[in-house]
Amino acid sequence: MQRKQEIAEVKQKLKELLKADTRKATSAPTAPAGAEPGKDKDPGSTYEAYIRQFLKEAWTLSKYQVGSLNLAAEVSLTFDAHGTLTDYRFLRRSGETRFDESVQRAVLDLRQLPTAPGQTFSLRVTFNLKELLER
Amino acid sequence: MILRHFLIFFVLTLCIAAEARSQVEISAPGRQLLPLAVTRILPLAGTARPELVNDFDATLRADLDLAGLFFPIPIAAYPDDAGQIGLTSTQIDFLSWQKLGAKALIKGGYTESGGELVVEARLYDPSGRRLLNGRRYRGKVADIRRMAHAFADQVLLSLTGTEGPFNSRIACVSSRSGRKELYLLDVDGQGLERLTEHGAIILNPDFSPQGKEIIFTSYRYGKPDLFRKEIYTGREIAVSARPGINISARYRPDGGEIALTLSHEGNSEIYLVGTDGSMRRRLTDNWGIDVDPTWSPGGDRLAFVSDRLGNPHLFTLDLASGAVGQLTVAGKYNATPAWSPLGDRIAFTRLEEKKFEIYTIRPDGSDERRLTDGPGSKEHPRWSSDGRFLVFSSNQDGESALYLMRADGSGLRRVTPPGLAASQPAWSGRW
Q1: Topology of B169-427 in CATH?
Q2: Interface contact A121, partner B, CB < 8 A
Q3: Is A90 on the interface with B (CB under 8 A)?
Q4: Can you give chain A as a three-state secondary structure string?
Q5: What CATH number was assigned to the domain covering residues B34-160?
């Protein structure tokens, strides 16, 4: 009896998580240009694709500016309910000043999301040069 | 029980997936070339000298193009600020450059009076509205190109952390006089200057890392002897004239000693001598022919060519232990190694289908890469002092000439003008 109850609880949790998972969902009508399809209430998820695309386009760095291509930095971004970037923090720096400065410049270009998410949210962004390593 | 564990595992996996969902990875910059605006330097006083401006502009642009960092913004798109003399951050219309997408902006001015020239050049970051570098150069009108080279070096310093090598010299062997003599030229192939009049074959130049001296092998006295020449005074002495060959000499990075190939004891071996030619010690001892030493940046290891295992291959030698290791295993003929000043790679040539091509390899023998292809042989690669570029000689255009390329093989360009018949380059340190 107890086992059945435990299984039922686990199934319920599973159901809730699956409901929150937007990876296979269809596009939200309010999703910004470039956003991944999603109907969930998680703004971080809704704006993920837009932010990725924006930051990639804004990130300017030549491979000849850095001594190694094995570099990575991780930044936490926080947006308010209006979509304004209110805070950014380096969770991990690459150790190479020019790489980190280029990341910072790209982040600072992302001052405002195109539509208001309606609630505060944070996102972690990793910048690295994996594509250049593979060439 | 098994079902329960499976469900818990599945839930945990989903929890991790849900937590990780708000992570974004960007695996390459969208823009890998920095949009650069290079405005023409303007007269700060006196009369305009458009020919000087053209020289400065062309030299600076060519250097920055070779660097491979930049996307040059078309001049036609420049805002009115390009024609404004103001050089200070308060005088520059940064907003107009920001709108153009410029990530770097070069502005400058000059004053010429009685053959004396002063050039002021500034590098700005338009987004940050800040001065990244500023230099004032004084000299003769004839120095205009060298001023541009010097500022290009500063631009690279500001944007990469390492000064460029453009204000340096390349030595080479040329037969333009009918004999193979030693010449000196600028990195852009201009400023050609003859250094020797031996009337005999000259080989294998190498710059002193500290002073403006050069060593080379000359047949002046009928056999290959090693000479050292002070470039400014012209003073020249025979450093090593031992019986047999005295060839392929290379200054140790601290400038205090020279590694070279001698055969006075019978076989061709590599030796260490002082800069006055005094014998320090024999470095190799093998029945095979050992030639072409090149120093690691720390001066503790050498790479060299030996046929001790059959075909000519590259080997490394640890000076402290005497341990020798084989570096190349492929190819039937590997030659003329040059260890990068950065220490990470060794350039060399390999005979491929009856012509030499340039390769690089890590000092541990891994990650071999071919850098050149196409017609003609490419020989004698040598590094710039910053390890960014390689100079080499090739007959790919039908005559022997010098070429430059980036360390990854991109950006190939010819350096020497037609008719110079140049070969065996060596690249100086900062001049």
Answers
A1: Neuraminidase (2.120.10)
A2: yes
A3: no
A4: CHHHHHHHHHHHHHHHHHHHCCCCCCCCCCCCCCCCCCCCCCHHHHHHHHHHHHHHHHCECCHHHCCCCCCEEEEEEEECCCCEEEEEEEEECCCCHHHHHHHHHHHHHCCECCCCCCCCEEEEEEEECHHHHHC
A5: 3.40.50.10070
Q: Which residues of A touch B10 (CB under 8 A)?
A: 14
The answer to whether A132 contacts B24, with C-beta atoms less than 8 Å apart, is: no
Domain with CATH 2.120.10.30 in chain B: 169-427
pLDDT digits (tens, 9 = 90+) for A4-26: 665 566 555 545 544 444 333 33
Total of domains in chain A: 1
| B38 phi and psi angles, rounded to 5 deg | -115, 100
CA distance to partner chain B, nearest, from residue A74 (Å): 9
pLDDT level of residue B86 (50, 70, 90 thresholds): confident
Q: Is any Cβ of chain B less than 8 angstroms from the Cβ of A61?
A: yes
**Numbered ranges of CATH 3.40.50.10070 in chain B:** 34-160
Q: Is A82 on the interface with B (CB under 8 A)?
A: no
pLDDT digit string, tens, across residues A79-127:
999 999 999 999 999 999 999 999 999 999 999 999 999 999 999 999 9
User: What residues contact residue B287 under an 8 Å CB cut-off, 6+ apart?
Assistant: B267, B308
Cα–Cα dist B175/A114, whole Å: 67
CB contact under 8 A, A123 and B23: yes
Range of the domain at A67: 2-134
Q: What CATH number did the domain enclosing A90 receive?
A: 3.30.1150
Q: How far A22 CA lies from chain B's nearest CA (Å)?
A: 10
A123 interaction partners in chain B (CB closer than 8 Å): 22-24
What is residue B125's predicted lDDT score, i.e. its pLDDT?
A: 95
Mean pLDDT, residues B347-376: 96
Of A10, A56, A64, nearest to B68 by CB-CB distance is: A64
Cβ-based contacts of B127 with chain A (< 8 Å): 105
C-beta of residue A55 within 8 angstroms of C-beta of residue B26: yes
Locate tokens 């004999």: which residue? B179
More confident residue, B400 or A8: B400
Give, in order, the Cα–Cα distances in Å from A59 to each of A14, A77, A105, B342: 38, 15, 7, 27
